[in-house]
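In the previous chapter we treated chains in isolation. Here, by contrast, the input contains two separate entities that must be folded as one system, with a combined length of 545 residues.
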Amino acid sequence: MTRRSLALIKALVIVACVIPFAWVAARAFGFAGDLGANPVQMVLHTFGKTGLNLLILTLAITPIRKQTGLNWLVALRRTLGLAAFAYILLHAITYAVLDQGLAWRSLLVDVAMRPYITVGFLALVLMVPLAVTSTNAMQRRLRRRWVQLHRLVYLIGILGAVHFLWLVKIDVTEPLLYMAVLALLLGYRVIDWQRRNRKRRLRAARKPT
Amino acid sequence: MLIKRPSDIKPSEITPESVFHRRREVLKAALAAGLLPAANAWGQAIGGGLPGLMPLADGAPRQRAFPEDGNLGELQPWEHDVERETTSFEDITTYNNYYEFGTGKTDPAKNSHTLRPHPWSVTVEGEADVTGTFALEDLMKGHTLEDRLYRFRCVEAWSMVVPWVGFPLGDLLKRFEPTSRANYVQFFTLNDSEQMPGVRYPVLRWPYREGLTIAEAMHPLTLLTVGLYGQLLPNQNGAPLRLIVPWKYGFKSIKSIVRIRFMERQPETSWNMANAREYGFYSNVNPDKDHPRWSQATERVLGAGLFSSRIPTRLFNGYADQVAGLYTGLDLMRNY
């Protein structure tokens, strides 16, 4: 993978990340159809679902990289993670501004009293430090603690899926599907971690004393 | 994949919305000029008596009174206006909860073309003297169809305003001569996996069932509905026969009814069976009684646009003057 082709792939990924936003924006202004009978809900769901999809894609990078040896994939992880954060932020803004009209009292009640909104809000808040520390400089400065901090992304993914599960009226098929994919990705990391630990211990045991 | 199916109703046959919104003036002018006979296309002359009900004998030929062009003809106007704008035909028919055709809001419009609303019959049973299976045409005969503009409030906190076409359910129920033990009425939706792809998945207990107290069922606002916007009900809106109980959350207004049962005890209802804490038997619209997971204080008006604000929800969906009397002495916070 040359530096040039990687830059090209990165650019394509960024373009792909913008497509859902562009789709919503175009329809909001009457291009390429409209947003249906309940446009606020359509915008809210599109942003939320896109954010969750991108989050899962971000989490999938490491397992895919390890299985395929395509190590350059790691260069896309930050782009995807930041795009996920952007969509989840847009999702929250849509909810607070377009849906609730910035009615502070009802927003506070929602965040404090409605479990699905509480977990969703928590996921958003937890994403902030990850976005802030996503630069190369921060990564160098925090070293091992950076890795530990960024493990939060798994918790964020789970909170996102729980948020989805708790808001659907009764048909839980889709949120359960998200949970299954998350469990698979997290399970892979746990098994991988155990395997590496075992190897390390074996190596340590073999060392002559 | 979205397969576009040509509509059964030609665009030229649909009343333009601009004309529709002036329909009362148009009708009044026409009646005054003696241009219109005061009659419904389906049913019979206004003021005519109700014929006796005859159950269908096996193989009995059905009458051909079904308005095959889909147009319900002249309707008795309804004097009560709604302060809000009427929701567009497009929005009413493309944003539906009808889980028998899928759980997405646009699924019913895409999938319900497989429903065959004609011929249709309804079985009446339980605590009544007149029971049996009746052809829809026979049930309709003698009733005057009315054009009723109602608010419609979904338990999911969205709402619309719909010009339904129908007649009071009580007028029909009386004809079955319910006994003194008929305290409740239960209704069932068709349950046919051939016509309804959604019933293959156990999202809810099929057949979909709903129920009312006999007083609620007999209330003049409770509408047995056969159309909207002056046309036969589109399949996704519950063709050919549905209930509209405007002061209750939408799921109480059961669609595509095939069975009516008079009962002594409170009947089972699908959403209550699925989650009794979230969906009570009464399910009256009540801004003070939140759904356990979300607020019911406000509602989003369909078709109002991306930058519209939510509006306050009203007790009994704004019909408190007419229906609050049904619940005197009942604690609405407990009996939700």
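Residues 23-32 of chain B form the longest helix (10 residues). The first strand of chain B starts at residue 121 and ends at 126. Compare these points with the single-chain example from earlier in the chapter.
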